[in-house]
From TrEMBL:
Signal peptide range in chain numbering: 1-17
GO biological process, one term: calcium ion import across plasma membrane
Name of protein: Stretch-activated Ca2+-permeable channel component-domain-containing protein
Species this chain originates from: Collybia nuda
Single Gene Ontology MF annotation: calcium channel activity
Domain of life: Eukaryota
Coiled coil: none
Keywords: Signal
Taxonomic classification: Eukaryota, Fungi, Dikarya, Basidiomycota, Agaricomycotina
UniProt keyword Signal, yes or no: yes
InterPro entries, A to Z: MID1/Yam8 (IPR024338)
Pfam families: Mid1
Length: 492
């Protein structure tokens, strides 16, 4: 018979284990200072592999979280020993993955001043709380509007056409039906100011979702703007001119994408936004057009003038007819690409050329643009200009490929666009938009791009994405735009 003292200790341990709260699998368990158990110790269910995630919902306090998967440790803490692990917290997030064949225990230290969430997932590669690697994408802005896309999700499996029924999409293509099940995505916008610093808060879904989002979402759809997959597309209004904004996308209130930063145009900016064109799915930016028809806040496939769409669709149709004179699918002109790739890249180039993109210098760097339109025989690199360093050395300053445009329609980049009643600045397309077609299409089409060392800079932004030596992604910026709101050239 066991000693009475030992029986009492075992009974106390049994009662304590019974009263401890168990963290359920694949659910979010929220805690506030008022409902945190005392002591704040939780049991973890048994499983081969579990991912334990933590999300701080408020900025006050500095709680610490300790976990053990050993049944010999009853109260994990700072001095718990070799089988106790502290969950590191970065930006308000914490995650720890391990085996829990006999279950485990989690304890919270100094958690009485903080609201937080706990999550236990049996999918070790997908914790409940996390910062997802994909970023939101800025389409473009006007003085008080913006188009923003979520990171891509649910990438569709697109089977390339095959011989003998090698059929390419029609010129006026339609997008496939949106996914039947999509994540719950919420856009959160704040000004990038010391008075409203979202980036100073815990970078967690529960923290960001509690903040008031600026602007007014007048339209939210799902859109597949590129081959990466479906995205949520938000059209915002009621923004303030010449204002810096910060944007996040929160998925299912537990996963965070962002931040990205952008700036609205000045109050005098006159180019409206164009978006949601099934035949040009990549177009989501401002274009030199008159004000949209009465009752519309932008241009889309329902209200674009036929003087623009008819020639575009005709060019696309004629190109496809010429392309398919090649025995697509039976004969191969490349081991890497086929006629479907050629048509897709040509469509993207044609749309970027047809829909000239407007822009304006950044208020923070008003001189960082092409002040004088390049001559037809312009040579050299358009992405940088030499500047003098403090020590007298020659530095290279990157500036956007913006070119002033007059109201003279004969000098317009796109002949199908109507004349503007005011001057504007054109953002030149990236040269890579042209070279992508050249690389993807067969030689017999005769599609060529201007030479980097001769006259490419007269009509394209050169040297931003790829280097002048044609090294992919090794240009001065490596991209057409970045998460900080810089748009160097029109990537289409």
């Amino acid at each position: 018979m066991l000693p009475e003292t030992l029986l009492c200790l075992l009974n106390a341990a049994f009662v304590l284990a019974q009263t401890r709260q168990s963290i359920p699998l694949n659910q979010v368990t929220p805690f506030t200072p008022s409902n945190l158990p005392n002591p704040p110790i939780f049991t973890i269910p048994s499983a081969n592999t579990l991912s334990i995630s933590v999300a701080l919902c408020t900025a006050n306090g500095s709680p610490r979280f300790f976990v053990t998967n050993s049944s010999a440790v009853d109260d994990p803490g700072p001095g718990g020993g070799r089988d106790v692990f502290e969950i590191p917290i970065t930006g308000g997030h914490g995650n720890w993955t391990g085996t829990f064949k006999d279950g485990g225990t989690l304890s919270v230290v100094d958690g009485r001043q903080t609201s937080f969430e706990l999550g236990v997932s049996d999918d070790g590669d997908r914790p409940i709380h996390e910062v997802v690697p994909g970023l939101p994408v800025l389409g473009d802005t006007t003085s008080n509007q913006a188009i923003i896309f979520s990171a891509a999700f649910n990438k569709p499996l697109i089977q390339p056409p095959s011989y003998p029924n090698y059929t390419l999409p029609p010129a006026n293509q339609s997008l496939p039906s949106p996914p039947s099940s999509a994540p719950n995505l919420t856009l959160i916008i704040s000004t990038t100011l010391p008075t409203s610093p979202l980036t100073a808060l815990p970078q967690t879904g529960c923290s960001l979702s509690a903040q008031r989002s600026l602007g007014r979402v007048t339209n939210k759809t799902f859109w597949m703007k590129d081959q990466e997959g479906w995205r949520a597309q938000w059209f915002l209004e009621a923004l303030t001119p010449s204002t810096n904004y910060t944007a996040y996308v929160v998925q299912d209130r537990t996963k965070v994408s962002g931040p990205i930063f952008f700036t609205t145009k000045s109050a005098s900016f006159s180019c409206p936004l164009v978006h949601s064109l099934p035949y040009c799915p990549n177009i989501a930016y401002s274009v030199p057009l008159p004000r949209p028809p009465l009752g519309s806040n932008a241009y889309d496939a329902t209200n674009l003038p036929t003087k623009i769409t008819t020639p575009l669709l005709s060019y696309m149709s004629n190109f496809t007819t010429t392309l398919t004179t090649f025995a697509c699918g039976r004969d191969w002109y490349s081991p890497l690409v086929g006629c479907d790739d050629c048509q897709r890249e040509y469509r993207r180039w044609l749309c970027a050329i047809t829909f000239t993109r407007c822009g304006e210098p950044s208020p923070a760097n008003s001189n960082a643009f092409t002040a004088v339109p390049p001559a037809p025989d312009a040579t050299g690199l358009s992405a940088v200009r030499p500047t003098n360093g403090l020590d007298g050395s020659q530095l290279q300053q990157v500036f956007s490929a913006l070119v002033p445009q007059s109201t003279d329609i004969s000098k317009a980049r796109s002949p199908t666009l109507p004349a503007m009643d005011s001057e504007y600045s054109m953002l030149l397309p990236c040269l890579e938009r042209c070279t992508a077609v050249d690389r993807a299409c067969p030689n017999f089409l005769g599609f060529t791009c201007p030479d980097v060392h001769f006259n490419a800079a007269a009509s394209y932004g050169v040297g931003y994405v790829d280097s002048v030596d044609d090294n992919e992604g090794r240009g001065v910026t490596g991209t057409s735009q970045d998460r900080w709101g810089n748009i160097w050239c029109n990537g289409g």
